[in-house]
Amino acid sequence: MNHPRFLFVLRPDADTAPPGDRSLPERSAATGGAVSLVWRLVGPNNRGLGQSWRSHPDQEACRAAVRGLREGLTRARPLIAITESSGLWTWRLDLDGERVAVSVRPYQRQRECHYSLENFFRSVPHAPMAAGLVSTPARRLPYPGADRPSRPAPASPTRATGAGTR
User: Fold this and answer.
1) How many CB atoms lie under 10 A from the CB of residue 75?
2) What is the pLDDT of residue 33?
3) Would you list the DSSP string of the chain?
4) What's the pLDDT at 14?
5) What pLDDT does 154 receive?
6) Interstrand relation of 5-11 and 129-135 (parallel, antiparallel or unpaired)
7) For burial by CB atoms within 10 Å, which of 49, 88, 139, 162 has the most?
8) pLDDT at site 100
9) Closest to 136 (Cα-Cα) out of 37, 32, 33, 26
10) Burial class (CB in 10 A: 0-12, 13-18, 19+), 31
């Protein structure tokens, strides 16, 4: 059976994020916007438990960020919030006033979000770091509907009256 582990993910997604989208990892100036290199903590089932908020210029910087997260985990401040536009729950982790980690995906229920955050906290201290990089295709936007225009609300049903109605 696999165990939780840190992966270092290289993605060519510089131009896929809408301007000002705070749900995606923040790109550092060092990456030049051409790629995004982030750490991602995955569970035994290979599902993401959390990932770094910032992108990093190289794998060593990602490893240093993981070490910093481990050293500061007791000082970390979690925040769970609902996204008003989607009604889905996400979590983030701040360390010394800086955002360092975010949930990999949104959750329909608050308890699922809490459970995900607890798994993240339990896994960080002992999860090994992968030796190499993992490459993924250009990223889709992470939240349902975020890449589609919003649909107009359905018209409220009205009761027909007058001649010719049953």
Assistant:
1) 9
2) 52
3) ----EEEEEEE--TTTSPTT-TTSPBPPGGGTTT-EEEEEEE-TTS-EEEEESB--SSHHHHHHHHHHHHHHGGG-EEEEEE-TTT--EEEEEEETTEEEEE-SS-BSSHHHHHHHHHHHHHHTTTPPEEEEEEE-PSPPPSSTTTTSPPPPPPPPP----STT--
4) 45
5) 43
6) parallel
7) 49
8) 96
9) 37
10) middle
Amino acid 165: pLDDT: 47
Give CA–CA dist 72/97, Å, rounded.
Answer: 12
Residue 36: predicted pLDDT: 77
10-residue averages of pLDDT along the chain (166 residues): 88 50 48 73 93 92 96 96 93 95 95 96 96 72 46 43 49
- The answer to whether residues 103 and 91 touch, using CB atoms and an 8 Å cutoff, is yes
Name the residue type at position 104. Answer: V
Cβ–Cβ under 8 Å, residues 113 and 107: yes
Q: Which two tokens stand for residue 3?
A: 């165990």
The one-letter amino acid at 151 = R
What's at 131, amino acid-wise?
A
Q: Which residue has the tokens 């009761």?
A: 159
DSSP bridge pairs for 13: none
